[in-house]
Amino acid sequence: MNIDSRQHALLQRTFLDYQPTESFLDNPLVVQRAQGLYYWDTDGKRYFDAIGGIFVAILGHGHPRVVEAMQKQLEVLSFAPPMHGTADVTLDFVERLSQVTPGDLNFAKSFSGGSESIEAALKFARQYFRQSGRPSKYKFISRYQGYHGGTYGAMAASGTGKRKTPFEPHMTGFLKVFPPTYYRDRFSSWEECNRFCAQLFEDVIISEDPDTVAGIIVEPIGNTGGIITPTEEYFHMLRDICDRHDVLLIFDEIITGYARTGSMFAAQTFGTTPDIICGGKALSSGAIPLGALTAREGMAEAFRGDPEEARNFAHGHTYAGNPLACAVGIAVLDEIEASDLCARARERGAYLQTKLQELTKYGVVREVRGRGMLLGVELVRDTHTMEPFPELGIALKKTALENGLIMRIDPHWFAVAPALTISEGEIDELYSLIDKSISDALERVHHEK
């Protein structure tokens, strides 16, 4: 697209997420409006939003239920004094969220997004153990290739090297194990590989001393590793390991939460209830910054006592529990249930997965994986050697935008996670754009050789 001299100058005065400004200026995208499944740039070109912006617009852009809820709340109350009280709609949100969480995860606190929710969970876990007589438990075990947010604690829990190294040294007490995909070619089956990788968590807990480990934190489906989708048994094993060693199991459901995987939470999709769930992104369908921490209700007792003790969760944010955001969150949850979008994610996701399997005709697809309407396609040079093919992913980033398609594209894989409101006809349109973009990318790569 074209940008004018003013926009060019302004782009030099800001930062774009995880990309050099110079590269962006070679192929810029400045969007002006959005509706449903589409964006339009300032030139009027339309783009199919195959990733919900960035896993957020689960109802599509400009959903009337969300817009109405925001407008109504804006007319009544948009901010409450957080150091003095709360808003009625914030309490309504706590009640509404607890109605859809698994097990007894009924203790809820909303924040401005996923990173804040992760930070809160880390602090909540450490303070929980400190105030329940086990102050030595402070370490967290997560996975390499996992991403938990851009704030400092969340970054320390993440396993994405290049996003972390500019800011080292990081906080202490964060340990990593490898995800199942790292070892998959060394085992006879995916199931066996997952058993080995789940056991690694217990090996680290024992080696570190269980009295020092507070929690395991994982994304049920690992985004930055390429939509890594473990087996259900993997999560059952993590639950058992945590129970044996008095360790909290924390699910980062910032991407997987709120119907994306075919259940309200991936915890339900995989049949494992954690102690804490961190959410964000789709909770507001991208209309306003919103995240949430939900924990087992009984854990809150560690933060209560006589007023003289001043026992409380020593954590807060200006926009935590924001009434405008909470009103939107309620509307999103209401729409998910009213339109049975969990079932829609399963049904439409199965159809989309079938379409994506057709890409194997190019001989560069190792695997299509994921659950519900969160799917990833791993790219390789050929399906015999499974050699990486980063040139293809790099070219695909360009050809997708040229063809009016917005996806999450890595040099080794791409992901699609469109709004759950998508129809089969729109899935066909999406597949056609992906198909053409891969064909164009392959042609470009072969031409450049």
Overview in brief:
The protein is an alpha/beta fold.
Biggest β-sheet description: 7 strands, mixed
**Helical run tally:** 16
Q: State the distance separating the first and last CA atoms.
A: 27 Å
Integer tally of domains: 2
Secondary structure blueprint with pairings:
Layout: H1 5-11, H2 21-26, E1 31-35, E2 38-41, E3 46-49, H3 52-55, H4 64-76, H5 88-98, E4 107-111, H6 114-131, E5 139-143, H7 152-157, H8 161-164, E6 174-177, H9 180-183, H10 190-208, E7 213-218, H11 232-245, E8 248-252, H12 266-269, E9 276-279, E10 291-295, H13 323-338, H14 341-357, E11 365-371, E12 374-379, H15 390-402, E13 405-406, E14 408-410, E15 413-416, H16 424-448
Parallel strand pairs: 3-13, 5-6, 5-7, 7-8, 8-9
Antiparallel strand pairs: 1-2, 2-3, 4-10, 9-10, 11-12, 12-15, 14-15
Helix pairs in contact: 4-13, 5-13, 10-11, 14-16, 15-16
Descriptive notes:
This protein is α/β, with parallel strands linked by helices. It has 2 domains: 5-62 and 342-448, Aspartate Aminotransferase, domain 1; 64-338, 3-Layer(aba) Sandwich (Aspartate Aminotransferase, domain 2), CATH 3.40.640. Helix content is 40%, strand content 15%. It has 16 helices and 15 strands. It has helices spanning 5-11, 21-26, 52-55, 64-76, 88-98, 114-131, 152-157, 161-164, 180-183, 190-208, 232-245, 266-269, 323-338, 341-357, 390-402, 424-448, and strands at 31-35, 38-41, 46-49, 107-111, 139-143, 174-177, 213-218, 248-252, 276-279, 291-295, 365-371, 374-379, 405-406, 408-410, 413-416. The strands form 3 sheets. It has a 7-stranded mixed beta sheet with strand order 4-10-9-8-7-5-6, with helices on both faces. Strand 11 and strand 12 form a beta hairpin. Helix 5 (88-98) packs parallel to helix 13 (323-338), helix 10 (190-208) packs parallel to helix 11 and helix 14 runs parallel beside helix 16 (424-448). The chain is globular, with a radius of gyration of 22 Å. The chain starts with a helix and ends with a helix. The model has no long low-confidence stretch (mean pLDDT 96).
